[in-house]
Amino acid sequence: LQRKQAQFYENIVKVIRPKPDYFAVGYYGQGFPTFIRNKVFIYRGKEYERREDFEARLLTQFPNAEKMKTTSPPGDDIKTSSGQYIQCFTVKPKLDLPSKFHRPVSEQIVSFYRVNEVQRFEYSRPVRKGEKNPDNEFANMWIERTIYVTAYKLPGILRWFEVKSVFMVEISPLENAIETMQLTNDKINNMVQQHLSDPNLPINPLSMLLNGIVDPAVMGGFANYEKAFFTEKYMHEHPEDHDKIEKLKDLIAWQIPFLAEGIRIHGEKVTEALRPFHERMEACFRQLKDKVEKQYGVRAILSSLDDRRGSRPRSMVRSFTMPSSSRPLSVASVSSLSSDSTPSRPGSDG
């Protein structure tokens, strides 16, 4: 029994679990049965199922339905029409870690809760406000984010549940930049942890991630944020954003030690054939490091990088234990339903 249990634990940490996509589906028009008419549901797709395949599977159940081309909520003319209109788009599940995880745990366990036992989902679409800036598209790129809360957590007895509440938040260009930098730092950190806990992981995903960040010819890095927000003109027009700008600068500075650790691991695992690629990446990183440390200060990982086998090193806890007040507003402002207003998971007779 203990051998079996040990095998399960080993699988949890080392076996790749497919991450299904989630889809929001709205059934509009008087042609649908009353229990789905003019309602929105969140569906959990099958493993590795693309949206196109999911839509095709959905439309076979309603051959007379017309697929809507937009993702914005339909007007009364569609809701009251005699036809059938189906709206379908991909939504992103929002991680809601159980309270028992008060300390950092294996990335494989966290990734499980990113797509399981989830009740909140979001859909973001960019919205331009003001005149278009041909030199920098980030300066006036707002994000309109819609949050969907389902009646029960997915997956449950069913692979789809009705949306019980919907609300929308607007993310300013600066808040969007903060959120993007935070996600990038977490992504580097997570991949570093995976390679530390399993030295046999393939190196290609790490190569692509690091190169996409440090090589300016690939992504352009955060230079666009500097041009958009770190100017005297922006500070003069938006004095209320001073704390957020400092937060963004802090995240940029913290990216350097995370990248350094990723490149160190990459250098240990790189093959001779990829050695020139690694050396170019190191050269790009040195330039980036000098620039960032000169402008935004030096950040150091807290403890020794050598004592790290077995669990997430204490040195990497920083990015997971930042106070909620320093998180992007778009993450902190969306509160989940309180426990007394959330219906329990339906029983077998539900």
UniProtKB/TrEMBL annotation:
InterPro entries registered for this protein in UniProt: DOCK, DOCK_C_lobe_C, DOCKER_dom, DOCKER_Lobe_B, DOCKER_Lobe_C
The protein's name in its UniProt record: DOCK1 protein
GO BP, one annotated term: small GTPase-mediated signal transduction
Region (Disordered): 307-350
Coiled coil: none
A Gene Ontology cellular-component term: plasma membrane
Domain DOCKER: 1-301
Family classification: Belongs to the DOCK family.
Biased composition (Low complexity): 323-350
GO molecular function per UniProt: guanyl-nucleotide exchange factor activity; small GTPase binding
Pfam families, sorted: DHR-2_Lobe_B, DHR-2_Lobe_C
